[in-house]
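Subject: complex prediction, re-run

Hi both,

The earlier run crashed halfway through, so I resubmitted it with identical inputs.
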Amino acid sequence: MDLYVVVLVEVLYGVASLILISAGLSIVFGMIKVINLAHGEFMMIGGYATITAVNLGMNVFVAMLVIAPAVVGLVGLVVERLVIRHLYGRLVDTMLATWGLSLFFIGLATMIFGNTTTGISTPIPGFAIGDYQVNGYNFFIIVVAALLLVAMLSVLKGTRAGLVARGTMQGPDMAAALGYSPDRIYMATFFCGSALSGLAGAILAPLVGLVPTSGGAYIAKAFITVIAGGPSLVAGLLSSASLFGVVHQAFTFATSPVIGEVALLVAAVVLLRILPQGVTGTFFKGKT
Amino acid sequence: MPGGLTRDAVTIALVTGVLIWVLPLIVGTYTLTVLAIYGMLGLSLGLIWGFGGILCFGQAAFFGLGAYAYAIFAINIGESTVPMILAVLVPAVFAALLGAMMFYGRLGDVYLGVITLVVTLILYKVVNSTAGPQYVIGNARLGGFNGIPGFPTLNVPGTPDAYIWGDRYFHVCAVLLGLVYMLVTALLRSSFGRIAVGIRENETRMSLMGYDVRARKTAMFAIGAGIAGLAGGLFANWAEIVTPSLFSLGQSAEIIIWCIVGGLGTRLGPVLGAAGLAYLKFLLGQQAVIDNALVTGLVLVLFVLFLPKGVVPALSDLWSAGIGRIRPGRIGRRRQPRRRGWPNG
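This time it finished cleanly. Structure:
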């Protein structure tokens, strides 16, 4: 019985971490059709921002939930103004330019922090379920991911800003004719997406040893989760993250973590081959 | 146009010969060897991306497969001729299977990018995890993260004791690069090449004209992978060790950067881009102030923003403008990027 609870928690944790990793990318891709291959590096910057802030004596939760998103959001803003802005509508070119940015940030982080592993300890202690020891921080990640989904859905569906953003996504010309500047809305959207990437990087930072090349571990997962999800933001994120999270954890339990990762990637390739429109493009057309 | 092809072949042979004679006076042959190998690798992506319109984010996968195929078969067979052939065939067959899966599924640009990227990552992870003694192919231990050292290097075909190394190995690589360049030229002049460029320009129209776009793209993809595999086999000989980092995303990124900087839709561009940037990296590696990745990344961003068609086309435009005559439109030129969105949006 205890084992089942532990497995359930692990599977939920797998799904939640995929949602966290992909949220920023899915906003940027879903709303403004830009694939940000520097997403992993944005998360890496979020991690370094957290660790630096904690080492300067700041409360770890403030550092994770406020400082890191703010820092990465600002980085994203600069990137959007200098680079992305000129490439809207050219999907392949944005992929190439952001890949260049990702190398740039890796180089920059190597020069500043050195090619060594840094980290902080998890701020929440573990506890026991029956005979098994569970990492308490996993629950924090599950809660944050759930809150994040609810927040995304309510902002998009419930507020004026969300309405304007969705309208611009459907028809930028019409939005412009009604007096909203698509340029500004894209900028704001990119800021939000970057801030979410920073948040994800910060929250996952205590679980991994951070190196300048850490971003590479996230980008492929985020990429396939978002692409497999398809055009609907929240439903797509939830469905593909659930699918891949379950596959990953199931194979990890049955065999080894490496096979788990490989199974996730293979599942993605198979899924894209069968459903090239993504999960929501096939099953839930026209929902957000 | 057999006459044009002969003239091209003679030009390529002459240029290759002169470069083999002149370049070692400036740069050491050990460095030149790897530059020639990278040039071949750049050419492989330049062919399928610049002329076939297939954006592959995982060209490093075929490079790595070629290198591993060479190393594994060289240990098991004990001489180099058959392993070298297999270094071309294994990636080509793998690419044909992968390509058939993707192109017969009619996947778009973005999905192609994702799948090739993910396949590279799968290979990287799998090879990286084969550290234990239970992972062997014949006599070859895969060695996981440490790679496979100590396999027999290139020998004269038929005499396994006559190893080719040093200056002679540079000559082999340079001549092979010249031959591959000639092969690509001949391919692009053939009807297969012209139809491939047509598919790049307008896939729907070509399929309505009765060409099997899927089969042709798959064949193109496999040819590119075979060239990358040959480069991989040569690289294994040069480095005398193969490691999983050959499969890494960083390696894939570099190949793409070479093509962008050199110029897509040209044969010379990717070769020059590869050799030039690899040499730049070599020079940067000798100092510790500026990180390598920082410069490479910056180069890629600046080129995408300011010179998206690359150095070679820009220079040749400048050249023809300077002479003041209008040259007839060449088929190789890359079209302007189209606006793209979701396939159904």
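Chain B touches chain A through 51 residues (CB under 8 Å).

- K.
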